[in-house]
Batch of 2 targets.
Target 1
Amino acid sequence: MPTVLYGAAYYQEYMPSDRLDKDIELMKQSGLTVVRLGESTWTSWEPKEGQFEFAWMDRILDALHKAGIKVIMGTPTYSIPPWLHAKHPEIMAVHLDGSTSTYGIRQNMDISHPAYRFYCERVIRQIMAHYKDHPSIIGYQVDNETSYYQSAGPVVQKGFVDYLKKKFGSTQELNKVWGLVYWGQLVQGWDELPARDGILNPGYKVEFERFQRTRVTDFLDWQARIVNEYKRPGQFVTQDFSGGVHTDIDQWAIARSLDIASTNPYYSVQDELDFQTATLTDDVARSVKDANFLVTETNAQTIGWDSKGQFPPYDGQLRMNVYGHLADGANMVEYWHWHSLHYGQETYWKGVLSHDLQPNRIFKEFSQVGHELQKIGPKLVNLKKTQDVAILFSADSYHGIRYMPFSDKHDYMSLLQQLHKTLYRLNVGVDIITPETKDLQRYKVIVVPPLYVASDTVLNRLAEYAKNGGHLLLTFKSGFTDEYDTVRPVMAPGPLREAAGFHYQEFSSLKQTLALKGDPFKAGEQNQVSTWIEMIELDTAKALAYYDHPFFSRYPAITRNEFGRGSVTFEGTVLSDELQMRVVDTVLKQAGLDGPDRQLPAAIHVKHGTGNSGHAMHYYFNYSGSPQSFAYPYSGAVDLLTGKPVAKAQSVTLPAWDVIIAEER
Amino acid sequence: MPTVLYGAAYYQEYMPSDRLDKDIELMKQSGLTVVRLGESTWTSWEPKEGQFEFAWMDRILDALHKAGIKVIMGTPTYSIPPWLHAKHPEIMAVHLDGSTSTYGIRQNMDISHPAYRFYCERVIRQIMAHYKDHPSIIGYQVDNETSYYQSAGPVVQKGFVDYLKKKFGSTQELNKVWGLVYWGQLVQGWDELPARDGILNPGYKVEFERFQRTRVTDFLDWQARIVNEYKRPGQFVTQDFSGGVHTDIDQWAIARSLDIASTNPYYSVQDELDFQTATLTDDVARSVKDANFLVTETNAQTIGWDSKGQFPPYDGQLRMNVYGHLADGANMVEYWHWHSLHYGQETYWKGVLSHDLQPNRIFKEFSQVGHELQKIGPKLVNLKKTQDVAILFSADSYHGIRYMPFSDKHDYMSLLQQLHKTLYRLNVGVDIITPETKDLQRYKVIVVPPLYVASDTVLNRLAEYAKNGGHLLLTFKSGFTDEYDTVRPVMAPGPLREAAGFHYQEFSSLKQTLALKGDPFKAGEQNQVSTWIEMIELDTAKALAYYDHPFFSRYPAITRNEFGRGSVTFEGTVLSDELQMRVVDTVLKQAGLDGPDRQLPAAIHVKHGTGNSGHAMHYYFNYSGSPQSFAYPYSGAVDLLTGKPVAKAQSVTLPAWDVIIAEER
Amino acid sequence: MPTVLYGAAYYQEYMPSDRLDKDIELMKQSGLTVVRLGESTWTSWEPKEGQFEFAWMDRILDALHKAGIKVIMGTPTYSIPPWLHAKHPEIMAVHLDGSTSTYGIRQNMDISHPAYRFYCERVIRQIMAHYKDHPSIIGYQVDNETSYYQSAGPVVQKGFVDYLKKKFGSTQELNKVWGLVYWGQLVQGWDELPARDGILNPGYKVEFERFQRTRVTDFLDWQARIVNEYKRPGQFVTQDFSGGVHTDIDQWAIARSLDIASTNPYYSVQDELDFQTATLTDDVARSVKDANFLVTETNAQTIGWDSKGQFPPYDGQLRMNVYGHLADGANMVEYWHWHSLHYGQETYWKGVLSHDLQPNRIFKEFSQVGHELQKIGPKLVNLKKTQDVAILFSADSYHGIRYMPFSDKHDYMSLLQQLHKTLYRLNVGVDIITPETKDLQRYKVIVVPPLYVASDTVLNRLAEYAKNGGHLLLTFKSGFTDEYDTVRPVMAPGPLREAAGFHYQEFSSLKQTLALKGDPFKAGEQNQVSTWIEMIELDTAKALAYYDHPFFSRYPAITRNEFGRGSVTFEGTVLSDELQMRVVDTVLKQAGLDGPDRQLPAAIHVKHGTGNSGHAMHYYFNYSGSPQSFAYPYSGAVDLLTGKPVAKAQSVTLPAWDVIIAEER
């Protein structure tokens, strides 16, 4: 892309009266360069079954084109028309509790249902045929924040049986891998297989989740293939993932069907703005294709499906967040949305304009950014990011632990979040990888939240990684079950035992927090572990810490094993945030990762990359309401926003909620 | 009415053995003058379908008549017989979640269902025909605490479509007012209209609530018309509303079908007795017909559908509460009920007698009041109340906010309650008015809880009221949406903008409480606002207070606009109780409302009116467990309870939980 | 029995690979003498309908027999095969909310359903016929922890009507005892009787619970009779109750069909180990047949259906718990289970061996006990227990109060638990008796949790008990309703009034705690009562305590009436634990129960009995992590575990989590 795109989703059709000209005038005035259209209004495209309308959209596209504004066109399939529901109620999602989705909310149908697919395909082909030559369109979005919508009724169950037949061949094999002999539930033939609704068997449940993820991949791949039949060279196909790390869809698999990945990060602003969860969302979006990505939606004024959590950004926050996404590798930032709505569930999910539809405080800041990007967008686009550290994400482990939780407070995701937050706090950028990732050696450190469900192959690959010089941080419960969520009948942590240098036969929950004996990491008041203890017995590893407790003191809490040319650090318990930071810090230092980014004030965060012109870029952000100073440690640069030079070792003061972009020269 | 009525609901048929003579002896002994009969026992009237029994009731009526006790007879339709459920299960309420009411509880049927109506009509006509000439009967109660019982299944949905056709004409109009274009849900014809069960659209939901209220009005009007065919001149028809302000029924509309309104206030006693919620209930009952009303049920010993909240009144409390209701304009106080029940869900909802059915502490106090009323009842009856202040209640706004709540802690009702409590604490009596109320100018001050849903007509009428000299206290969210719950596409507060003298484009939730800068109302520790901020920009109004906050300090928290001959005070945020009291106080003073009632000790409350003989009456109550003294500020009077004179400026000491009734002479 | 049995449930069929020989080797090595087999794996017995497999079990039985290990064989009926569910979905439990049990969990069928019974009977007869002559089998377990599984659908409802017809004869009688006249719900004939699902009537609900209990009794009696047709002389039939006191089954009635009762106590260990709830479970198991019992399942390593509450015992705890059960009268202790499972819902309900299936810390302690019992088992078996105190348990009262609760915090069970805990703390052993228990006079003291539902006969029997010299401790709500849960229409506490020496007409809930005036029991900070007050008026009783409160001070809180040759102490309110202990202490002293067991350190508990050789036995346990000393007060004895003599008055020091067994000589 030649420059950064900046814009909003635009729904002229939602407005109480025609404002197309007024809107385009405001857009031009603000520096907006792109809008997303069409993905939300199936009944505007097809008000009655088989009757298609295009004039309303032609007029919008033509006007945008005239104004030089680019368009991303969406397929309108995530929210079905009333006539479709009335005619084909059988396409609605049937949930595990037997209830059927009612009409009213979007995203409530069975995405595998052939009747739904039939109407989807027709409306997509109609739109594509009509607009394939329109010059304003740069790309297509297929569907919107797709999931499987808790659809799990009899039709889905039949699909699951087909999936099982293909994967396992016979119910004999299922009896074995899931241990159906337990409670006398051996199955003799597929017609006896009980439905998911009452199932307690963890292996069955984890496999069912895997199947559900494939349904979403299949649906989006199918849409992308239809769109690909029509799209012009140079146009792209994308899908907009909702924010965070998803366990209900396989973002990596879906991304293989897309030309570029998109994401919709929404996050807390005002006093809570620190951009960590936004960064995690961006890290995923960048990692799924190992490439630049688009932000298709993000906070404009306020968000929420009611008016309980209305938090408009403070002055400066909207602007700094744009640069936050660009620093993560985004090539576009688009708000949801241009207007605010006067009816419907998202009345309080406000756009750039308020309900009064006139310029306001936010529009002013939006315009400031629009004009800045007109100038510096070409330098910011296509940022190259190379990370030394990766976090390994396992959706299977999330579900495996979800079905056998170790805590009401902590779970797989809270551990993953803690580790990401720790690295963010240390100003260490990360990629997100999965158990399928083969090329591990490109990372100096791999951090592994509880890898509860994993095949021998995956565990052996991690062990190999360490042996070859990688530094592995493993957490409790890793290695406990195989890929079928079945506990290994050997000493834990199974295939990781040699690399980790210990074994255990027992574990215990903890009702209270415990201290580590002698505060080995100098964490002071936060010298605290909790929730879970693996009763580790050392083979070759060294203990980094022991528990302060009459009984548990004999078991190490944290261990490290020098293994081959690398190392394996293991946390056998849940660490406080401070303790986690100090342990991660030692692992980074093991890997030779240290430096000036670690000396910044807590409110200052820095992100790096190589700019479009090949220069190193350093983005500095002040996530606080007061000015913050620091010494700039890199080669001489220019702040692209102000045009001022920044010299090595120069003291830089960032105002409240502000940013500089230092491009080395 | 010639005197105050005093009595209880009476269910001789509920007793384990015949006690009619014993009960009537105790009633006579106590001074009881009225009982309510018959409304709860359909199967005693009609044990088998079409077989009617009257002998059991004839005997009771004759004995009561002989004893000179008056009777209110109820239609027994709120609890259906087992045979009716067995024969017509289709009349049971079907809820939004698809579940059907089971048999066991009362008030679980679809009150619009023709099959239910058929059996209702027959039993009502049978009873009316049989008893229309009985001399003991002074009036009839139709049904009991009627609502629509969450009935919202397919039959109700059909009724809703008919209602919509009449009101809106076409689905094109619905597409427009509800904005069904959002999420592509445009409807082409009534057969496509989705059912209420899955609906998220706020406008649809608010209209559905309106429709449900009309169903209750229609049902009670229909019953009243049947009874009117039989009743003698001088007899009345009433319905007993349950306590509080109702959002599921339209009490004003229903009252138009009644000769007199009744109400069933139940409230906390023991240490929590302050009679505020009871007063609110009474204020509604008096306001719906702008006339005296009846208390058909209230606490005798204890209340509750289990034994978790059994709180018998302390000595004196039962007695003072009778005079509390009379001071609000009641012409009758009837307990629920005479006996206590030995079985059924209300075993612990105890009557005047305990389960042992012998005189007890409560019976003694009941008798004391009975004998007092024999003497002074004729002076207390028909109290005339004229209020300077009104609270505007909007059921639509309640629902509009409920479907887009701004808080888990505060809602429309909590604001209305806070405002009533504030005025009660200031000893200012109020009427309750509605958006339909035309004659606003009779009030000096109108207090408006968040008027979120309102037509231009209503808002313009309020602006006009201020212009003509009224003093309006408006609260946040007022004026935000129109009568269809659709946000106005203009600067807020829409049609109120000129009268209020400001506008806003943005608002914010608050996670923490904030102080008002400089504590302008001297509220000390309670100088606190919370939850919600409208980011007000002044046009002509003056700011009475600003926020103490780095960002929000630029926005006024409370404003006042002198407008025409009156004023508009606006609260853009949620105030602490103390702050609310101080702000209301300034509004009252704007309107010239001040005086000695504001100097009373906190535990003393006073209520006023003009007595049956044309004299001014002042009721003073001590809502505390210790004696309280105050200077009596009005013209010389006599305490009707003791016969002692009370001179102007005399110091009066009220014992714990006691009352005086000063009638000016 | 000649000696104590020690073992585990054993599921070789659950293992990922064959380990029969390895397991038996480990069993022999550890001293294990018994295993339970077969009750959990219907599909191993009958993989397809009507096709039975025995070879897998023959092999296990033969190997065990060869190793001299005894077997308890279970009928496999508590968990149904997939083929049975697929063929007969109509046997699944239908719940009160109309939902049907799904397949996956065990114990989810209607145990009265004839189709289920047909398949049960066939598989039981097949197993019995095949194994009736196998020499290793010492007894049979019918089903497992049986309940009625919330099955309450139409089929159960029909059974209930039959039950009612038999018990009450006509609906006229029901109308009367349940007071169906209330809310006009009189029933004219059985076809009109409403189903349980919507019922609010407390009498109906309590009777329905009684009916449900009879269904379980009937089912187990039916199974026992089938097994009895086959079993050899000397073999026993048992059922394993889950822990605690059950309100959903009638353990006393069921026990009449069994040769010996079994129980499955599971309880907290680590820092929370005090063995009180385990003792209560044992007390019930011993009381139901007034005989020794078996522990069929108990904690090995950790328990839980997830990994949130994994608490392996500290060193010594597993061992001391074995002797704890023996001291309560157990003749067997069997763990659930030998292995740990690698799949299924109970993956974290760990057995003696961990998932690695190799000897571990717990196996070591298991083996220590196994070898101790080889030596001293013959002396410990068949312990005779004679208790001076009984707690009267009323399932009806539990349900009566459940349907009209007096608190969210306290209920029938919390009171029963408090009383048991109090007596346990005082080292007073108890039997558990029921309202049906006739021979009350064998106890010196009977302690009665709120006996809310009880017939005149039962209440008169208790009064008679006191008159004849017994000492009765009664608690509030006792005597309030009759056997139909109908409140008595007389002064409370009804038939208990003369014995208790007081009456009351009123009661009150309490929002705050109150003190007793003058702290009459010297409870200091715990001089606190709460929740409920019966407003007692004394007849002949004396007040032991009054409330400290302006209003309630006129009512006694605790009373005592000397009655005949005994006494009745009454608690009209909820006492703090400390207060309860001091009140119970005075009642024990009334009965002459005092002595050296009351002087022990808090962590030391003692239990007594007469050993198999006729000598008095005293078990002392140290439930703490530090050594505890006490003076041994009984005749000279030998500690069976160490063989060391223990002299009268000798100071004994017990190490942390340890036990001595003093056999008098």
Target 2
Amino acid sequence: MSKANPVVAIAGATGAVGREMLLVMEQRGFPASQVKALASGRSAGRRLTYEGPGASGIYGSGEGYVEVEEMTRSSFAGVDIALFSAGASVSREYREAVLDAGAVMIDNSSAFRMDSDVPLVVPEVNPDDVAGHNGVIANPNCSTIQLVVVLNALAQLVPLRRVVCSTYQAASGAGAAAMEELYTQTRQFLEGEPLTIERFAHQIAFNCIPQIDVFLDDGSTKEEWKMVVETRKILHEPALALAMTCVRVPVLRCHAESINVEFEAQLPVSVAEARAALEAAPGVAVMDDPLTLEYPMPGLLAGTDDVYVGRLRADPSVQNGLAFWSVADQLRKGAALNAVQIAELLL
Amino acid sequence: MSKANPVVAIAGATGAVGREMLLVMEQRGFPASQVKALASGRSAGRRLTYEGPGASGIYGSGEGYVEVEEMTRSSFAGVDIALFSAGASVSREYREAVLDAGAVMIDNSSAFRMDSDVPLVVPEVNPDDVAGHNGVIANPNCSTIQLVVVLNALAQLVPLRRVVCSTYQAASGAGAAAMEELYTQTRQFLEGEPLTIERFAHQIAFNCIPQIDVFLDDGSTKEEWKMVVETRKILHEPALALAMTCVRVPVLRCHAESINVEFEAQLPVSVAEARAALEAAPGVAVMDDPLTLEYPMPGLLAGTDDVYVGRLRADPSVQNGLAFWSVADQLRKGAALNAVQIAELLL
């Protein structure tokens, strides 16, 4: 795939990430010659707003759109790049059809991320890994992407020894319906009505749920495991020590992470050095001024592209430690934007 | 002070913690001969429901109460125990009047916590420290109490080497008006109205604010500093390594904490040993069953007395590490209950 103007299919186009993919392609002017929106049969015929290159309707007219088609194995004829965000089982089901059509699959699900022949790519961190692909490139987990962009910038200073991270993850990380459930439940709570609990294991309104994805035998959750193994793969640090705790919080959009990093070297990395490295790093925005009470907050950064870092300070509890806080829009950098950036690497 | 039936004054009786103190005394049948509710002049004459020993009205009639009196320097004549929860400046202002009256001050503010002649007490952890008091006993910070109850239980197994903790703190930790602001703002957000932001530095509805209390020169916040120095004082471990990140989340009541502990010894502490120690520890309730998706959650534990612990698992990122999650009602164990427990130690 090295066409300058590829045909792009979006599988799962009506979902939270799929819609964001269309928006990101439009905003970045992704040079598609055609965009195909694929979803389940019940969405077929629905028109999704899309004003970017490859839209149906007149480009730039304010009336551009893509019309949803039912996804079948024959949907990928003529497609060059297929962006998948319809769940792991759908990705597994269609992988062969996509590859048979000669298209490259950029998959946002967890289906293939840890396969040894599938690159797991964050363009700011390991763009060169794309070169080794065999038809599938995986997009990492949302909370992983946000973490590795920052860790990679810091690891340029001194190798990392250990990372402890606790997350504050938004409802929309579980999809558009989950975000709607937070809205609905919050209304119900305020009205004193019974709560509708369907998308999360427990009430999410005015609550924190210390579980994301299923439990594994060692007492960790799959989300925590993903953050560990994906970070190691992306950073090419198979033995990096990572301790993760993943928590869902009643926020609509944007994940936050509280991070304590220990560096390998005996020589301390100063806060000033870390700040300079982060300020220079692509995809990172430092937002950190205690005097004006400025730091990143998930409720105020929806729709942004960077990984925001604040609360940068020494961690005096360990010889060579740094503590900080990061926020990123998990639907954009954590999913749609990262996938489109991978597609851009293919051009 | 060793009267079996003391006269108890509650300074700040109309606040979130003061009202909880009355409720805790009532529920525990604290054997007061009289309870005096003190507050600012504008609350004078207001009747607060209180059905415990020392109430006005007929005890046990369902119509018991205490009538609020304006607090003055002469309010403490005849008082044996004065529970203060009206802010640090009020505690400083009245300390002398309380001591001159021969009463013992149990102070929930941060005014005297780190004074060398003031015991800082969590009854499950360091009850013997009460003996050394000179008229003032301090109640620790809410997030500290919750942490030390668990750390103390684990330190009985093997001494602690380092603790990394990120908090998820409820709005009511900033007082009743702050909790009301979360309600109001959430309603405003859902209605698309402008948000009223008065009690927090930023929007709290559907947001996380990584700042509690003011910033210090080293980039930490005063809440983070309190957790470090208070934990060391209570555990009698002046050099214990602690890294804290304190975050306000849109939860009404109950603080949660994500904690990674490293033990001193080379021999690992097993999860089973840690679980047994926690199950045996006074004031701790283990709520931890991945099979039934059971773990403590702040939205569901308001009004409880224990420190709840779940998500207990090995932390494989370090030689001898344990990770877990805790939740406690910061108005009860984190404030009112702990203060009343200290009063009980005095009887």
